[in-house]
Batch of 2 targets.
Target 1
Amino acid sequence: MTQQSQPSADSPAVYPAVNYLNADRGVKSWLLTLDHKRIGIMYFASVLVMFLVGGIFAMAVRLELLTPGPTIMGANTYNRMFTLHGIVMIFLFMIPAIPGVFGNFCMPLMLGAKDVAFPRLNLLSLYLYWTGAILAISAIIFGGIDTGWTFYPPYSTTTPMTAFPALVGIFILGFSSIVTGLNFIVTIHTLRAPGMTWMRMQLFVWAIYATSIIQVLATPVIGLTVMLAGIEKVAGFGLFDSAKGGDPVLFQHFFWFYSHPAVYIMVLPSMGVVSDAIAAVARKNVFGYQMIAYSSLGIAFVGFFAWGHHMFVSGQSPFDNGAFAVISMFVGVFTAIKVFNWVGTLYRGAIAINAMFVYICGFLFFVVFGGMTGIAVATISLDIHWHDTYFVVAHFHFIMVGAVIMGFLIAIHYWFPKMFGRMYHEGWAMVSASFIVLGFIATFIPQFLVGNAGMPRRYYMYPERFQAMNVASTAGSSLLAFGFIIIAIYLIYALVRGEIAGDNPWKSMGVEWQTTSPPDKHNFAKPVVITKDPHSYQKPGEEVEHVVI
Amino acid sequence: MSSSDEHAHSARHPHLAEHFETIQQQDYAARLGMWLFLGTEVLLFAGLFLGYTVYRHFYHATWHACSQALSLSLGATNTVILISSSLTVALAYWAVKVGKRNLALGLLAFTILCAIAFLCIKYVEYSHKFHVGELPGKWFRAEELMQYPAANMYFTIYFLATGLHAFHVIVGMSVLLWVAKGIWKGRYTPDYFVPVELGALYWHLVDLVWIFLFPLLYLI
Amino acid sequence: MAQATTTESAHAKDAHHHGTKSYWVVWVILLACTGLTVFTGQHDLSHVFPSANITIALIIATIKASLVVWYFMHMREAAGTNRIVFVTSFVFLLVMIFGVFGDLWTRSPMTLPYHTPTTEGPEIEVPEGGAHHAPAHHSPSPEHHE
Amino acid sequence: MNELMRNLLWLPPQASTLAPKIDNLHYFVITVTMAASILTGVLAFVFFFKYRERHAGQSTPIVLPSVKFEIAVIGVPLFFFLLWFVQGFQDYIWYTTPPKNTMDVYVMGKKWMWKFSYAGGGPNAIGTLHVPANRPVRLLMTSRDVLHSFYVPDFRVKQDVVPGRYTETWFEATMPGRYQIMCAEYCGTWHSQMWGEVVVMPGPEFDAWMVEQKAGLAERVDTAGDDGGDMRGSIVEYGKKIAMTEGCVRCHSLDGQPHIGPTWLDLYQRRETLESGEAVIADEAYLTDSMIDPRGKVVKGFKPIMPTYKGRLAAPEAAALVEFIKSLRSTSLENLPSKEATYDPAKPTQRR
């Protein structure tokens, strides 16, 4: 297939006998592989385990909050639970998930390349991830860490509990993130297929490119911050200790300089996945391709200037609060552009009815609602009431669960046939999708309300007046957990006995669908030449109506 | 290090990895990867420069007094040493390109010697500070600086910045040793020298950071 | 071949074979700059303009740094993307510093760390012509001080 | 309309001059957010039904946005966002500049309690802050150990409390009543119990209270001063003296030895199981009740022989005893005293 040809719908689906999965056997072939697809699969497995671990901590927190008083655990255990929930979910699942799994697996395929630019560095990134994960999780054994995932001194540096293993773990995870970002930037710059200019790359590749820029430029700062917190805790240098002249608010500047761009590291890849998936599901050209591509870069750069809106009530001066608030408003505009263009892509499309579309509808609603509550929280006067309450918790879960995990699920359902060559059961996928969307709403809408009522974050015991909403939220979270269990079941079933998917089950025009699924060890039998714009679905030589809104 | 993955062998060019089309493409990728890595190093030190400027803003008088306590002569000699080592490593890179293998090895040896000299001077400065008690945090007990508020903060920043920089000097030395071994074994020749360039780039960055650290710590 | 930039750096490769004269010249300039910055560092120049010392030192350091980057690190022949990458990292260094200093420059004096609070009540400073605070005219009663 | 929206969004009552300002902007922002997200969700569903795939391989038109459409897509959201920013920043500047004639109160956040002392020689108080209604009150806050955050939901007021420096906030309560203070910045084991209360009294009633407090300050303490405090010996020694004179130590040991009554070492916040089998946390309320009505909640394994101290102990004496019990802590991990974090102020520096 030299030309980017229209996928032949009628040829019977065939499962290639030799592919990257069984090209060479043995555990050593997996652990020392240089194949970006295998590294992607190993990332996939470890990221799912981390999601399970984080989910268990989440359920522990939710069960504890069923009653105002102590329910199933003591105060210190509860503090450890929500801290570990934060650390595991953010550093071990959200940040590495989509870039690590689908960035590794799909991005080189989308570029028409044989592999990433530095395969050995890619494997190093996976090993760094595993080491960091083991160290971070080991914090439970060394007495647990109860400082919250933000490690604010002076509490984090004076608490009797050992935060050191977790800090070292995050330091190592930072390097894994830098190395992945660096690898992807160089790959996108150098290994694009002939004919693929920057404007013919798929939108997922644009999103991964923007994410990698943030990963490379922001992560060193958290590496230094975590190192300083560790030194401060062990050696008492007094950098953030007011008794020795330090300023605790300075740590917050250090921490959020990384952590705000980090939230864009999490959300940008899932936006890229949705851009690709919407074009494939609606079988239509992307509405405003340049706008979506440039808004990814816009979010990447302007996201670096807005970290101060996490510190509106921390004692920051009114001038700086105002400056950060204005800049945060501009970051919101880029997300709004993306949403309008996604909905525009659906206009006059040929939308296929499948589970992915249920997720996409949920994704659109949650991105808009989560995003605009973010803008609401960035309005300074409202933040005085909302800061550190459950309103903020609900906002970032709307973005993290609503947008990022929904995007992760869309990516799984979209590329599962390409990764494993088998198809999952569409009916069960629809059922679990509705469970997930409804469970999500039932979990986090009550948290918005209890946040409005004034319930602060990280509360082990709370006044009775907040109990009703907390019970509703716990009920919602169990529904959400149930939805994830169904997904796990039918995906594992499909892995073993799913029907053969064939090269291009979705009839998508993505470059990654030009090769067999699961793809050969060297990706493409014949080198790919790109002649058309990406996501363009008209058949060659067919005249199609051009509409300009 | 990104330089470590250029050694897969294929028929087209002895050092061309199979997923690259041409050696120029691979060189371009290696250089871009190295410059990105240098960007992350700059941002790693950015945090310490921020800490320095913030606490200098708070404790202006203390900063002035404490920087007098450092020995300017040792700092200046260190700067000269690093600048000269930067020169010799650049010449070594040039020597490899034009094929003068022994000259390149000699120059690299001189650069590594300069690095060792830098670390020795650093050791002298540190031991003096440990002796006098100009130490960070709770160990600070230098009498004459006691009357300045938060004088320990200056030495916290001093030890963190110069400590991290010394660590990078050690890493830079081992990179240069690796490059020297490559030249010695004849792997880096006039038609394949990019890893030498990357090693030189890393050493220049170490020198670059010291160029900024020296005036801020010793002269203000 | 979409990699236009790689061919350009290929030509640049043969431009390398000029002599090493430029390296030595740059080395001499660097040493001169170091001498200059040491000299200016020892004399208090705040009468020239406020915080003159640090500004001069930073200017000289930037000159030295850009010399090292331009000649020693071959930024002269490097591809465009490498330049953008390295410059952006310095831009974000400045963004970080000015973001934080937006806070420090505009804080009210009372909220700065070196404004040493007693454990109980602060000495309320009356800002020049600022709001007249009730307790200003009498400092908190003596028994508040430890 | 205001009440409807306030109840709909579960907002607490508006008990300060700041609350209506914030809530009005809140209603505007939330309605626009709801409208936009519902519009997007509904539009997606409408397109889903209207443009679903009729037959396999159906070709779709190329739809491209015009420049006018792009400008609208950028302009409309930006307009709303900047409008909110302008309104929000105005309210914020109004919130950060206290009026001239405020009454000053120094607030000290300490691991899991709030301490207030009034400027101009007023009384000290733990946990309860008496303020006059319709008069601005300015709080000058600092922390003894870690970060805390002074948060009164009903006033919509929140300000972090940072050790080693002062942060300032102000409010003007409008409705007399009792409003809960909560700590909003995570500060350790009992962060969720670091509550206090703002008692808003009508103006004249407050003035009378203040006069009575100041008069009584010389010989009697309203509630405890600081544990290293400057009042007539610290509250803890005062409590210890009462324990000796009233004979509590005859039955309650102070060092953990089993005795006639439960030991007082590490008693505070300990989970006790009573004769009736139900578990209870030994907090201030339980300790004070047990002094007044000892036979009400007897701990399992002890005989109900303790005499009642109702009428023999005045309120401050009971409070002092509770403080004394709270200070008896072994160095177990559970409630490590926050000693090492207390700060000794660096030497005062001359103004730059």
Target 2
Amino acid sequence: MPTKNESITQELRQKARHLLESGQVAAFLGYTSGSVPMVMKPFVARKPEDAERLEWNSFCVLNLANYLPPLLRSFEPPRRPNDPPPEGPLPKVGVAATGCWSRNMVVQVQENQMERERVVIIGISSRGMVDRKKVLNAVNHAEITSVKEEDNSLLVKGPGLEEEINRWDVIRDNCQTCVHPDPVIFDEMIGQLQGDRDIQDRFRQVEEIENLSAQDRWQWFTSEIDSCIRCYACRNACPLCYCPTCFVDDSRPQWVGKSREPVDTAIFHILRAYHCAGRCTDCGSCESACPMGIRMRILTKKLQKDVLDLYGTEAGMSIQQPLPLSTYKMDDPQDFVLTESFKGEKK
Amino acid sequence: MLDNKDFSAWLSRLSDSHDIYGPKKTRKGMLEWARLEGGQLPDPEPGVPKSSIKTFYFPQPETLFEFSARPKKEDAFRLHEPSRHQNPRLLIGVRPCDARSVVLNSMPYQEDPYFQENRRNTFLLGYACSQGCSTCFCTWTGGSPVGQDGLDILAFLLEDGLVLEPVTERGEELLEKAGSARDLTRAQEQKVDEIRQKAPASLPEEMEPAPRLREKELMALYDAPFWQELSDSCINCGTCTFLCPTCYCFDIQDETLRGRGRRIRYWDSCMFPLFTLHASGHNPRGEKIKRVRNRFMHKLKYFPDRFGPLSCVGCGRCVRDCPVNIDIRQVMKELLAI
Amino acid sequence: MNDKAKNQKDWEPKIIAFLCNWCSYAGADLAGVSRYQYPPSLRIVRVPCSGRVSANMILDALRSGADGVLVSGCHPGDCHYISGNYYARRRFAVLKNFLEFIGIEPGRVNFSWISASEGEQFAEVAKEVTSRVKKLGPARHLVKEF
Amino acid sequence: MFYATLEGLRRFKIPHKFEFVSIISLYAQWIREGRLNVDSSWNSDGLKFTVQDPCKLVRQGLGDAVAEDLRYVIKKVAGEENFIDVWPRLSNNYCCGGGGGALQAGFVENRRKYGKLKFDQLAATGADVVITPCHNCHTQVLDICDFYGGKWKTTHLWNWLEKALIIDGSAGRAGKD
Amino acid sequence: MSTPKGSVLIVGGGIAGVQAALDLADSGFYVHLVEKSSAIGGSMSQLDKTFPTNDCSACILSPKLVECGRHLNINLLTLSEVLSIEGEPGSFRVKVRENPRYVDVDKCIACGSCAEKCPKKVPNEFDLGLGKRKAIYLRYPQAVPLKYAIDPEHCIYLKKPGRCGFCEKVCPADAINFKDTAREHDLHVGSVILALGFRPFDPSRLDFTGYGQFKNVVTSMEFERLLSPSGPCLGHMERPSDHQEPRKIAWLQCIGSRDINKACHGYCSSVCCMYAIKQAVIAKEHSESGDVDATIFFMDMRTHGKGFEAYYNRARDEGIDFKRARVHTILPAANDNLKVRFAGEDGKIAEDEFDLVVLSVGLETDPQVMRLAHELGIELDSDSFAATSCFRPVETSRKGIFVCGALAEPKDIPQSVMEASAAALEAERILHPARWTETRKKEFPPERDVHAEPPRIGVFVCSCGINIASVVDVQAVTDYAWTLPGVVFAQNNLFTCSQDTINQMAEIIKRERLNRVVVASCTPRTHEPLFQETLREAGINKFLFEMANIRDQDSWVHQDEPDAATLKAKDLVRMAVAKVRGDEPLPYNSVPVTKSALVIGAGVAGLTAALSLADQGFPVTLVERKDRLGGHARKFFRTWQGQEVQSYLQELAGMVEANANIDVHLGTTVEDVSGSVGQFRTMLSDGTEVKHGAAIVAVGAESFKPRQGRWNYLYGKNPNVHTLLELDQRFIKDDPGLKGLNQAVFIHCVGSRVPERPYCSRVCCTHAIDQAIHLKEMNPDMDIFMLYRDIRTYGKREHLYQKARSLGIVFIRYDLDNLPRVSETSGRLVVEVKDPIIDAEVTLHPDLLILASAVRPRDDVGELSKLFKCAMTSDGFLLEAHMKLRPVDFATDGVYLAGLCHYPKPVEETIAQAKAAASRAGLVLSRDAVPAESITAVVNAQKCTGCSVCTKVCAYHAVNMDANSQKAVVDTGLCKGCGACVAGCRSDAITLKNLGNEQIMAAVEAAMEDF
């Protein structure tokens, strides 16, 4: 009997092949496997037969929304910046999407990065993706040469190594605390929607840090990022980071030094996260992409928590809902404002 | 032959006059370069540390000079040398692939005073690899798990100590201070030989791609169709470049701070949007596919055409840590197939 | 050099104050007109609106060596540009929490609403912010050095 | 009668040439004009006076002017320093509580309950004498003083005017007791 | 009439006078603004906050005052009085006496040294005597002109020459002139506008209030000062007796209003209910203890303005206690507290004790103003307000002399501002041939192109007499400035702003070929324009300039720390130099104007606006969606003053049709709008494309018809149930059937002030009562019952209410919990309602049931508002740019609104607003080009991601996505330079000219420089 992911893979190939064959899409964006265990390759199927290379498993950790806008652009006829848009409908692209990916697609639509009509979304309700680093920890960083996946376990093999690991134990933190595993926009579904998950302590990681002293928080933050090599994998894996010139690349003004110095690295991480405030869906791509094992996701998670607490919104839940930092309410909380807290203190 | 205690004692003595570094396991479980003090020994884990040793030759950032940004002060616009590191550095536990990268990088940086100064000032004590990892392929690139290129001293790790072989004169000088060296026992000699024999065999079969690639026609490689699929999955991050021991591209920037300024050199990556960006705004490598291609063409074609060897030591870092599993070994095979 | 100065006992903090032109900057003027005295720690940067102030600017001030930052705008509803301070309020609420989350001491980065007629309040805020920053000591966390 | 006529003409907008004047205003006018000579020196004991402003005369009738005249006369008669005003006063003074037929119609309990407010107000002045220039007020104030145990004397105005009157501007007072 | 004079006299420098002055001066007329006190600003400057937005009064007023004070075409005559006006429209001779100030305004730098030294303390009239000022004084901190004045009543020297004279000794500018004398001015003007305002009613007349007797009874105006941060207790809210914060405050409404008994003011003062609520809200907010009990004693809560009812509801939710009770007396209690006795609606007597009682005093005309009016031959009405009529709301009895603001009737600020613009329009209508004949225009030499030059910065460090120099070592600062990068000249001046220094500065700029200038002196808010003008005179672009505020924000606030202040001054200069280095010449943006207008809607508002503009020679396109002119007003019988509406409307429509300048498009709607102020292009549904410089939206509203639901009351089911307008129809037809009726019942607030339509429709109380009176007059035997919630016959309309009651019309109050119930038995209407006064159910059998139903916004207003990029309120009315001070402008420049689409209002207010809108539109149409902001946002398309954050946060719709490139583009005509987009942009793709991130960062970095 095939595993759940094997079934999904089959159905995904079928649907992608159909979309490509029928000409509904010019390409289908999914994953294929590569040469290293537990690392999947985002893959663009351009011909119906490519669909057979598509694969779905628990290691599809990078958010495919990240690839969509440039992929869609690549199918537009070339034109100069001020030429009018081409007439008639433009080619579409199909894509597989879990809850968070689809929410990032919503944000991309809201932020004018792509048109909803141009993507055919095959929804997959997510069962959570595996954190390669957790697996490595579980085997004490022994070398792994193959991993076989069952529905609820992973069989890990390497030189002198064979171990079965409980799948849920090595699921990424963001997936373990994920509330919305279902796609919010899709054209077709593979499998059933599972509904929102009831997670009591979805912000536990954040709260643990909040409860530290300022000094300890700084200690945590600096030690978390001190290994950063400024490779920008976190930024580049993020579907929100589409600026042609990122603030770190700017030299006029020079917001932040470009090299590996603690203050500049800190400011890079602060601003990168801050720029995601109200937009981040906690897809975890940043953390998954980081070669140095930095848990920068906690930063965006904190912002997600505050935006939810302060303004009651979560990113990408619907195309109509305004992005929280480009809107306001008259009675937004303002206890943080000194002159307002003066009032409070005197009370 | 030094037992671990004597080795430690030697290092401890050396640390008065040298800054000593070696790979240690971090709290996150990965192997990384760390300052070793008071005779600390590196962790004897197999494989290469996360970062390559290029940090020591090609610091991130390197201050080229400093200046005052206030034209009317006495030191107005006068450039001065930054205070530089004084003590010689000794790196311990360098894997032969990393050591070889210094030799390769030295080729384009022949005339670079900063690089050469750092090279003069840095001593390498290498650890021979007794077993290749699944991502290793030094043998393809002209290296060897027990190779000596770039090292001052090569060590073989045995259960009860290390066998140290001087490679350079200055390595020999350094070793002289080790003092209490003992002669090798037969068993130990056998063990070293066994490593020399078996280690290369644990790696993929030699292909000698460099000469074959040099022979290929440039444009045929450049126009190969597989680049498209490769770039489809690439996210243009700098992981491969920054972890790579032989990626040596840099950018330069002036920084000012509170009325003072400095010019720094820091790592660049052909993956980044500013790479080869012209002042006009035009970038000959404006698209992802061109950047991805550049990285591999540089390593596997342009560099060999210019200097002979590949600009790759087969350490496997890029293979291990690429978030989208772009594998240079695959690329090599694709290119060789053309 | 900077550090040495900061270690001295008579260290006076430098606080960058981004004040909106229409309310808080005018409030600061009124403090002067009314001769309310406050510590000489503020370095006021006049901006058109608190909505002009971005997270980048605040971080840049800290990176440049400011011991503290104050951003002050019109009271909600009073914005000369209709809604600038409402957007600012959201940006700052999120930023302030976030900076504190990563360990920037509460009191380093401050926000206030001060109207053109609140000269005394301006002086009060200046005193309060200065005393908070003084208690924290010289900023170190995000100060760029070379 | 006075008020009924006044209000009748006013409410039904009956054209008329009447001028409504209270005797109190005339007293005041005459005192001002020197036609009535009064002197407060008789009040050597310093009897304290206060006043009730009758609704029909002041609030609903002729307004504050007559009430001011009333005070003027009292001050002249009893001495400026011996007058203690109530609060509230003039048009805004409390009703005695005996109006609207309450005195005649037999609602004794209710009337005295309403009058309690008046009693408290007058008692608060500590005055020895309450001038009530209205028969109805007079009876009510007299009754509540008695009922609630007040210490004052309730009188009309003329009783005291007469005490202060200087006859012929020279030889003592008429009716000096 | 020969060519009229191109100048106007405005009497009164309050907000109405100031608004009229600015409107006129900006549209081509020279204005003499006469103000009795030493500074303009009027009553509004004394207020703390304004309702319903709680805006800081000084903050929103100040910019207007400053603009007025600096205006080249406004001659400010403070301390002045009008003596006489002779002549006729187009040519009046006016005598004005300017009383001596004893301070030379050209020299005074408002440093305040004089007042500091002046030994004579005087009760401060600005604080209504609650605080003290000196005999030499500034009326208030933001006074315009910002010049001191000597009060001759109290000056020791002026009383006894030779004594005192300290001010003269300490004045660093030699500005004191004890020999100053009164001057008389003979002015020749074409028209006159009276904006003399009101005075607050003096409650000492009302002895029951205890005002003047008890310290803790204050008037509402006094309470404003107690709340104000610039007031006597610096905004700490103290009660007078012991300077403690009051915990329990009562407001007493209708003090001196709606009182024909003692106050002799039968009218309603219109504003007191709202300001009392505002004060209660602010008191709660202000309170340091945080628990203030606020109680408002009222008769009818009159929150009939835009946003007022919501404000009232919010106040109630916030726990302010509204007591429908008339207070009998304030009694003294222990601790200087006050006991308040009152009878509730249930008739029960209750008592409560308060720390402070605020008397919500009404507005009345100052007797001095009455005398002046009398002398000028201006007729006043029985309430002593200037007599006007509904159809001519700003015209006085004397031709060519107009009135605005509270002088004509008590009113709030927006209404006054509206009338001010309307009065300005009336003057323009007479004087338009003389437009631009008397105005002055500043000429500047051509500007040197400095683009290619390296920065050559000049730094001028001001001593400001001793204001700066006594604390800051100005010489050290000057020497220091020389060392800064790019600085090629630095100089210290005694007074940088003095005329001779200014002239010298212009010379130095030329001689040294400076291309950037820094002045280190006082605040740019007052002085930047002066120095910028100097740059222009010296032939360089005025935006190459920065100020370092080393006085207001340095020497004055660090008086005891000269060393630190000097260090700070150096920092500030260095910051300014760093900033100015990056400044670039900016264009003096302007947009050429198409000198014609589009008016949408041909009701009373649209017709009036169209005529008002056409009469001045501006072509107007008038668009009406229906196929005839007249709009909503075609259904009206008469105004509350009794004038017939239909005949007026016919006259108005006739004039419009006859006017050659008006192009009427009936049965037409607006399809599309593009462009911005000065250059709109509008497509009409009939295919016409209209090019116009300004637009007035006057699309009206409609009457709510309660065909079903909770407010139905058998409307549409029983033939005897009418709306007000339907009854008006019967009046217009003079329906004889109305005469024989026995009983009529009116139900107020049908569909207004209810959850689904929470606003008050403002007009219905007056309308219903007027109809009731009309019915009663037709048939005095008819019994008429008004079922109401609060009677809102504001202003002089209160007289109608009084009349209705005197006619025997019965008023029964109901509330939302106890709605009247209407039923039918065999065709006969039965109305049941509970009368709270007699606490009993009343059953009525009316022959006629009239529903005073709501005025509701039209559904299609939203479409139109989108076309013109205008905002709407949550109620669906159009939202003006600023509720208080820009009541007829939209946030979009060049678009104005009038009439019912703004909010329900009676015809006289509609006419005033339409004229105001025409006046505002005239500001644009009267000039060849309109200035636009120079410091605007600019997009770097290469960096732009097209994410549209900038377009979302722009309040002016100035940033849009280019349809082709999908990158942001800025419409510089609309951009106001606030920078919200810049801060919102993650990729630094949009920036502000001369206020870009790089420049701000340069200043920040400079601040941190070690030296």
